[in-house]
Write a structure and sequence with these properties.
Elements: E1 5-12, H1 16-25, E2 32-35, E3 52-56, H2 57-65, H3 69-73, E4 77-79, E5 81-86, E6 92-96, H4 97-100, E7 106-110, H5 111-123, E8 128-131, E9 136-141, E10 146-150, E11 158-166, H6 173-177, E12 182-198, E13 206-211, E14 217-221, E15 226-233, H7 235-243, H8 246-257, E16 264-267, E17 271-280, E18 284-285, E19 288-290, E20 296-297, H9 305-325, H10 333-362, H11 368-380, H12 383-393
């Protein structure tokens, strides 16, 4: 039996970003289709695996606005301080929620928990139809809609919509089929991720970013007194680290971080993935919008990937809501132009910030190490600079969407 249907919006990709958009649009009088290739409960589902996400403050507010935060709140760990340092150098910088006049800078959540909350919300949304497993191909632009072919695993057929949203990852074939090119630059690094227990470490809410000549190491506070680590290393060094037994890997982490928190004593499961910067050359095409990793895939150094994607979601949902209220076309040129304009500066700034951090702390020229240490010390003494960076970290720099301000669409 073939599947076919006419929708207002079709979303390709039901991972964290695509599911978030579907939840946001569920509040509007629209028919929405969500197409996801990998069953959500499958161990192969990459969006809802054992990894964790550092949610910015604005992301928590957006998730609350789309009805997903309540299910996650009890499982989330608050971040109240961010500590940045470089191994072997003097100087560090600390950003605290107290200094910024807020209760938290963000939260750490498990991808699996957030995915479950989003999909539970979708299950209660009568105007969102889910096609999973399924994938889209062969988009054809027509006068007032775009038509796509649902793969044979779902019986084939056509899905038609006034707006097609590409949210299926950094190497999206649908984005390419729409004629949107993307550039990719490898960081020549692999991220090794997992969690670790620290002997005698008090219950804490500080996130650490520690740079070294080999690459950055992030430690994020997590539930049950554990910390999530993200260790970025050149591919060969990362493969060697994965091959170590637990005791040897604990020593590697300890050497990289020091004993500020105590002794690292127990490891969870480790996994790894390669790191690169992916940038779509455009985030719109006729009757199509690109969001999340399909628009920009980032280095995890500052934990901004999903946060940036969620701000894509909030902006696209807002311009679609405005079009619906005005009786305009939610996939028309004016709507898409507004989305592109809303996102241009934020995307450029965050990409520049994360990429710049990797480049800055990767420089080994004579004198650069002491200069970075002095820079961290100076930054820590400048309230204005810390306030500006804190607002970027919290996702609250520049114009903010209604959802990010806690307002309904």
């Amino acid at each position: 039996m073939s599947a076919a249907g006419d929708f207002d919006v079709v979303i390709s990709g039901g991972g964290l970003v695509g599911a978030s958009l579907a939840c946001a649009l569920a509040a509007l009088p629209l028919r929405v289709a969500l197409v996801e290739a990998v069953p959500i409960a499958s161990a192969a589902q990459p969006s809802f695996d054992d990894r964790t996400i550092a949610l910015s403050r604005s992301s928590r507010i957006i998730l609350d606005g789309i009805g997903a935060w309540r299910e996650v709140a009890a499982l989330a760990t608050p971040i109240r301080r961010i500590h940045v340092s470089e191994r072997g150098r003097f100087g560090s910088a600390i950003i605290s929620a107290e200094q910024q006049g807020v209760d938290t800078l963000g939260h750490v959540v498990a991808s699996r928990d957030l995915g479950a909350a989003l999909w539970a919300r979708l299950g209660a949304a009568p105007d969102v139809e889910v096609f999973c497993p399924g994938s889209l191909q062969s988009p054809v632009l027509e006068q007032a809609q775009v038509s796509t072919t649902l793969d044979a695993a779902r019986g084939g057929g056509q899905l038609r919509a006034r707006l097609l949203v590409v949210a299926d990852g950094a190497r999206s074939s649908l984005r390419q089929a729409l004629g949107i090119a993307a550039t990719e630059r490898s960081y020549e690094q692999t991220a090794v991720v997992g969690n670790v227990a620290i002997a005698g470490a008090p219950s804490a809410s500080t996130a650490y970013e520690r740079f070294s000549a080999e690459g950055p190491l992030a430690l994020l506070p997590f539930r049950d007194g554990r910390y999530v680590f993200v260790l970025a290393r050149p591919p060969a060094a990362a493969a060697a680290a994965l091959a170590l037994d637990d005791a040897a890997f604990l020593r590697l982490l300890q050497d990289g971080f020091g004993r500020r928190l105590g002794d690292f004593v127990q490891l969870g499961r480790r996994s790894a993935y390669p790191l690169s910067l992916v940038q779509a050359q455009d985030i719109t095409a006729p009757r199509a919008a690109v969001i999340g990793n399909a628009a920009q895939g980032l280095h995890p150094v500052a934990g901004q990937g999903y946060n940036l994607g969620l701000r894509d979601v909030a902006a696209l949902a807002e311009v679609v809501a405005d079009a619906v209220r005005a009786g305009a076309d939610p996939g028309g040129a004016a709507t898409l132009a507004r989305y592109a304009e809303l996102r241009r500066r934020d995307q450029r700034n965050v990409i520049g910030f994360t990429d710049g951090l990797i480049r800055l702390f990767g420089l080994a020229a004579p004198g650069m190490g002491p200069a970075r240490g002095a820079g961290l010390l100076l930054f820590d003494m400048l309230p204005g600079a810390k306030r500006a960076l804190a607002r970027h970290t919290m996702g609250m720099a520049g114009p903010m969407t209604r959802l990010a301000r806690g307002l309904p669409l």
